[in-house]
Amino acid sequence: MRAVTWTGRNSVEVADVPDPGILNARDAIVRVTSTAVCGSDLHLVDGYVPTMQKGDVLGHEFMGEVVEVGPGVAPDRLRVGDRVVVPFPIACGACTACVRGLWSCCENSNPNAGASEKMFGHPVSGIFGYSHLTGGFAGGQAQYVRVPFADVGPLRVPPGLTDEQVLFLSDILPTGYMGAEMCDIQPGQVVAVWGGGPVGQFAADSARLLGAERVVVIEPEGYRRAHAEAAGHETLDPSDLDIRSALLELTGGRGPDACVDAVGMEATHGALHVEAYDRAKQAVRSETERPHALRQAILSCRSGGVVSVIGVYGGLLDKFPAGAWMNRSLTLRTGQCHVHRYLEPLLGHIERGALDPARIITHRLPLEEAAHGYEIFKTKQDDCEKVVLTP
């Protein structure tokens, strides 16, 4: 089959790879009908996530049709012919973490748990197409994909919904929603979101859905600010403003009630001297993150507020403002998204028209043009907000 493979730093190519097969009784094979390039994929391409190997199949946002199921998958749970969207974390459904709804912390799905334990202190779940640190599972930017624990993860898609309406249930829509949910939003509150990429857009939409009176999206790219404004959100340009001062002015000197970091490890537009410091340390791999957005969020949030972090961080950062966090009673919440928790509720919002995930799609390409899709998404060419690939 054809699949998008990692061939080195800043290099992907579509290549022939072996077809997947059933390896365990609870597996399924899905023929992919739609898949997408995610901002998290860029961290792999940029070389900031360790343990990638040449030929690894990329992609963790995908959906399609079930073409084979293992003998351990009950027919009432999944059948050949079912149309499904698949969560990016792989979860067993039975461990302590899964029972508590912490699906991305599954204790059983990562065969390389020892490596992630050394990195993070405790193991994390397996993830499709996201390095050998999270299991080395082949990803979904392919014609077919093996789905472990298929009796737990995939969501059947109701008839009448298009791929583009539900594809992002695999990752970025639940991730954005979780980022907003962790803010404990109350009616009348102000929420600031760092990042106008796909996850930031959905975090802003979700904050409004959950009752925020004002949502401010902080984003340097004009076309992304335009997307946010078209959805009814306010915007600020960090390349043109001191963000903390601007947010204080917007909130009568108090600061936003909650701040969402939807940027993560490759943030830009911090103070010039600090940005230069972070870029230099990151370039020589003595720091893995550029946490400008996180620092701004902590320093801008009102005292007693919530800082919600859904942008991906993978290692170590410098100059974390622990004093501001502790002395001003800030609550810091974060996590890889527990996608399974949100599938049914968000599907309901889509069916009712309360959320429009397809609004962020700007480019639709065949799988064979994936390298071009990665390039325009990474370099923000042609006002690229989101790339959907069709095998």
From TrEMBL:
Coiled-coil region list: none
Cofactor: Zn(2+)
GO MF entry, a single one: zinc ion binding
Family according to the record: Belongs to the zinc-containing alcohol dehydrogenase family.
Classification via InterPro entries: ADH-like_C (IPR013149), ADH-like_N (IPR013154), ADH_Zn_CS (IPR002328), GroES-like_sf (IPR011032), NAD(P)-bd_dom_sf (IPR036291)
Organism: Cellulomonas hominis
Entry annotated with the keyword Zinc: yes
Keyword Oxidoreductase: yes
Record domain Alcohol dehydrogenase-like C-terminal: where: 198-268
Sorted UniProt keywords: Metal-binding, Oxidoreductase, Zinc
PANTHER family given in the database record: DEHYDROGENASE, ZINC-CONTAINING, PUTATIVE (AFU_ORTHOLOGUE AFUA_2G02810)-RELATED (PTHR42813:SF2), ZINC-TYPE ALCOHOL DEHYDROGENASE-LIKE (PTHR42813)
UniProt name for this protein: Glutathione-dependent formaldehyde dehydrogenase
Domain Alcohol dehydrogenase-like N-terminal: 26-154
